[in-house]
Amino acid sequence: MKIVILSANQNLYSTKRLIEAGEKKGHEMVVVNHTKCDLVIEKKRPCIVYKGEEITDVDGVIPRIGASVTFYGTAVVRQFEMMKVFTATESQALVRSRDKLRSLQILSRAGLGLPKTVFSNYSKDVSGVIDKVGGAPLVIKLLEGTQGLGVVLADNRNSAESILEAFNGLQARVIVQEFIKEAKGADIRAFVVDGVVVGAMKRQGKEGEFRSNLHRGGTANIIELTDEEENAALKAAKCLGLGIAGVDMLQSSRGPLILEVNSSPGLEGIEIATGKNIAGHIIKYVERNAE
């Protein structure tokens, strides 16, 4: 089959691993930089032009679209969908998962556990917002942040108020979440492909750091999920409509709490921590669904 990987950088670990796993199965793997595609929209014959040539005869697409180019990246994915090409992540699901507030609303409606969260429209009543999540310590997250950037832990009420006032003054949209003390700076990433958890790791923030992101110096180890954790991860991916998802959860005294669901989860951390061929699972998923 001819499989296109939409990636702005073909030297990234995830992109290289997908190429390797696809070629091993005899597929023609083509990396296309979605930020350099031109979309031709006309009745009956939508097409995509890349480096001056029309992209044709594609059997499947694996989108690896960074948060900063979501708008254009999803338009490219949607164009492939209009061309009747199977895509491992649907455009609509991509848009949904990138909107943190909307994701949390969907997860909440599905009855999944979440840290208590407050979102306001630059509310002047910062004290009331703090009370609604149960007071300090609490976590403040920029809606646009990724890889743990724009996530702040406010230890006490005073710092929580000044951080919120500062973000509001900058007109930066934030969500305020309760701090789950018993998670001890660790979280779980469950990697879901086509309705199955194909790997899971526990990530621990470095000493004195509550963010467990590997980009922030955290460490990761393979973990066996409980049934409750596995079910939560599968349900979260399903209700957001994602065929491929990295579901981040906290272990709390009231069960797993979902932090966020990532639609372009990196392969490096999970493959190294688990020793599993996650890229191979993604290729098999495309094989099962592509024409």
TrEMBL record:
Cofactor section: Mg(2+); Mn(2+)
GO aspect biological process, one term: SOS response
Entries under InterPro entries matching the protein: ATP-grasp, ATP-grasp_RimK-type, ATP_grasp_subdomain_1, Rimk_N, Rp_bS6_RimK/Lys_biosynth_LsyX
GO cellular component, one term: cytoplasm
Keywords: ATP-binding, Ligase, Magnesium, Manganese, Metal-binding, Nucleotide-binding, Protein biosynthesis
Every ATP-grasp domain range: 104-287
GO molecular function: ATP binding; metal ion binding; ribosomal S6-glutamic acid ligase activity
Pfam families xref list: RimK, Rimk_N
Family (UniProt): In the C-terminal section; belongs to the RimK family.
NCBIfam families linked to this entry: PRK10446.1, rimK_fam
Protein's name according to its UniProt entry: Probable alpha-L-glutamate ligase
UniProt organism field: Cellulophaga baltica
